[in-house]
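Exercise 7b. Backbone tokens:
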């Protein structure tokens, strides 16, 4: 098996470069022992890019990312950038990549590795063997919809507002990813929204319900987000695939990650409709341990496994890394 696919490497800030170095060693291993080769290009992102170029993501780096088949991402951010203007913060580089690459489907597995069962704050019998997938819609909803802003009122006070907006096509495409994932797992999808108080949630439930008719072998249930948060810590093994919008997915995926004992040990994938993806560990830049070689690279390594599986259809090599 051989490959001449183009891979963008973006180490970023904090422990990002440290864990990325381990993934580069893994790529060398794949070339040597599996005959899987990548043409890699490295670009700055986040705080490092701001320090060098005055922007969290240069036009050149974005253009190069668009030309690559997949992106390996480290981490961005740190206290030294907290006072920057909103558009210059390191995280804006990550959001721009997601938007411009149209990475609408964020896959966040929550897996309890046997040695970490005791590390979870929940009882072992609740989390032992846990393997669920949180599917978060990543390019719509309240993080991107307009109008949004902070306005000055006539009395001098301010109002801040954001819009949670979803269209039928946006819901359908993330829904299809959910049902297709479930068919490869345990044939169960839980769709999460807030249909009792949000009209965007009403539409979400309606579209997902109609789409489910195309997948008769997949069991669909609906759950309000507040109940879903409670159920994740009460009985997480009731779930297989959870599909939800951008804001709720952001919150629920972090809850699910902590069930496993450490959010720093889990990978993620963000895919577009062509399965081109960006792969990154869930952990942040961890500036408190940066440069000390203390960061565990398992999440970054498992992100490579997800890349092989979802972007390049190399399930055998992916399983070899996971094992």
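Sequence design result:
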């Amino acid at each position: 098996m051989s490959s001449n696919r183009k891979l963008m490497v973006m180490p970023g800030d904090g422990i990002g470069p440290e864990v990325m170095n381990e993934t580069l060693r893994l790529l060398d291993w794949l070339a040597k022992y599996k005959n899987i080769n990548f043409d890699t290009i490295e670009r700055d992102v986040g705080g490092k890019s701001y320090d060098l170029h005055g922007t969290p993501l240069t036009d050149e780096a974005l253009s190069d990312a668009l030309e690559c088949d997949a992106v390996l991402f480290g981490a961005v951010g740190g206290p030294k950038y907290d006072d920057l203007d909103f558009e210059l913060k390191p995280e804006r580089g990550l959001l721009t990549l997601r938007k411009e690459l149209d990475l609408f489907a964020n896959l966040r597995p929550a897996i309890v590795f046997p040695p970490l069962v005791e590390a979870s704050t929940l009882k072992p019998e609740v989390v032992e063997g846990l393997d669920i997938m949180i599917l978060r819609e990543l390019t719509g909803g309240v993080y991107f919809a307009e109008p949004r802003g902070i306005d000055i009122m006539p009395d001098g006070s301010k109002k801040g507002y954001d819009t949670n907006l979803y269209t039928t096509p946006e819901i359908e495409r993330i829904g299809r990813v959910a049902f297709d994932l479930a068919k490869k797992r345990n044939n169960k999808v839980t769709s999460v929204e807030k249909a009792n108080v949000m009209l965007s949630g009403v539409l979400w439930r309606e579209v997902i319900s109609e789409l489910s008719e195309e997948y008769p072998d997949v069991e669909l249930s609906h759950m309000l987000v507040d109940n879903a948060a409670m159920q994740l810590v009460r009985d997480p093994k009731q779930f297989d695939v959870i599909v939800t919008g951008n804001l709720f997915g952001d919150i629920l995926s972090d809850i699910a990650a902590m069930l496993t004992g450490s959010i720093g040990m889990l990978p993620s994938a963000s895919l577009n409709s062509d399965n081109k993806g960006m792969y990154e560990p869930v952990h942040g830049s961890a500036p408190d341990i940066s440069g000390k070689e203390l960061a565990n690279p398992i999440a970054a390594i498992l992100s490579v496994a997800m890349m092989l599986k979802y972007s390049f259809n190399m399930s055998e090599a992916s399983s070899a890394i996971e094992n």
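Instructor comment: The longest strand covers residues 5-12. The radius of gyration is 20 Å.
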